[in-house]
Amino acid sequence: MGKILEIIDLKKYFKTNQGTVLAVDGVSFHLEEGETLGLVGESGSGKSTVAYMIAGIYSPTSGKILFFGRDISMVANKRSLTTKGEIQIVFQDPGTSLNPRRTIGQILLLPLSVHKIGKANERRELAEELLQMVQLPKDYFEKVPSMLGGGEKQMVAIARALATRPKLVILDEPTSALDVIIQAKIIKMLMNFQRELGLSYLFITHDLSLMRNVATRVAIMYLGKICELAPTKEFFEKPLHPYTRMLLSSIPVVSEEEEALKPKKIESRGEIPSPVNVPPGCSFHLRCPEVMEICKKVDPQILKFSGKHFVRCHLFSKNSGHNNTSGNEE
Ligand SMILES: Nc1ncnc2c1ncn2[C@@H]1O[C@H](COP(=O)(O)OP(=O)(O)O)[C@@H](O)[C@H]1O
Ligand code: SF4
Ligand SMILES: [Mg+2]
């Protein structure tokens, strides 16, 4: 399996009246073909900004985005055409991502004609097939989004994303606005599409427990940086970063087995600081139960702990006595 996506030291700063927002501040990771990388973090940690840069909605302040090894970071506004629709994004709120003045049919036909998929007279059939794929009836073709429920709208948004036969689909909290039954249905559908169509997913969520069954690897974001990244099993069995352990300790579990695996309850302390006023040193140090003197001054680097497990924390840096080797996420 090759690398479909690689992002290197990606940054996005926004200038605002309150100061510069360090929304994404040096994020690196890659995605293998056919895998699901879960990007998890609290609201405001920079997840959507990462997504929007990959999708070409925002230009990065600095850093690189490689798609099949090709640098696409500089073509933000032409990204969709440059990548021939091979990168698609599904947004959290299907209510605002679908044009209210277009019928579902028109919404599905648009990407087909923009990307010249099929002959003009075949496109209606292709669009109907897309509707069928997401299990919506044919007569929805003539409806407008306001006539659909939230889950149905999100299925239309997924069908639209699949129209251009993408290789990479960014799912930005695709089910957070929906109730749990519809959420489960959509997740199942997405997993089936992944298998059938060989898709790679960057799955963004604030719901860590959802990632257990969905992600190949999990990355945790905090204030614009990744603080831990590991294969899913290892991530849940051996969480390292104090922030990860704090998040995991607050997940409700269903079995005793899971309870035994869970880190000891760590009280969540404080709120996520503003990305305009990022604390010096480790940005988590004001909330960290294990804070040391060095943490207040020096921002830790992300280091390889073992195999594919990476962590950004002084507890695991070279001189701390823990057994690890340094390296970049690759
Ligand atoms: N266009 C923008 N202008 C200014 N600040 C922004 C903009 N977009 C996002 N931000 C800020 O960047 C930070 C990260 O936002 P976002 O990527 O949406 O986080 P998440 O998706 O994890 O909730 C937040 O503090 C947010 O307010
Ligand atoms: S570097 Fe220090 S403050 Fe930051 S997470 Fe690790 S122990 Fe906590
Ligand atoms: Mg978001």
Count of beta strands: 12
Strand content: 15-25%
Mean pLDDT: 90
Which shape, going by the Cα principal axes?
globular
Q: For the record, what CATH class of the largest domain applies?
A: Alpha Beta
Named once each, the bound ligands are: adenosine-5'-diphosphate, iron/sulfur cluster, magnesium ion
- Under the CATH scheme, the architecture of the largest domain is 3-Layer(aba) Sandwich
Q: Show unreliable segments.
A: 321-328
Give the helix/strand class. alpha/beta
Give the helices and strands as they follow along the chain.
Answer: EEEHEEHEHHHHEHEHEEHHHEE
Number of discrete helical segments: 11
- What is the CA-CA span between the terminal residues? 14 Å
| Gyration radius, in Å | 21 Å
Task: Detail the topology: elements first, then pairings.
Layout: E1 3-16, E2 19-32, E3 36-40, H1 47-55, E4 62-67, E5 70-71, H2 79-82, E6 87-90, H3 94-97, H4 104-114, H5 123-133, H6 150-162, E7 168-172, H7 180-197, E8 200-205, H8 208-211, E9 217-222, E10 225-231, H9 232-237, H10 242-249, H11 256-261, E11 303-306, E12 309-311
Parallel strand pairs: 3-8, 3-9, 6-7, 7-8
Antiparallel strand pairs: 1-2, 1-4, 4-5, 9-10, 10-12, 11-12
Helix pairs in contact: 4-5, 4-6
The chain binds adenosine-5'-diphosphate, iron/sulfur cluster and magnesium ion.
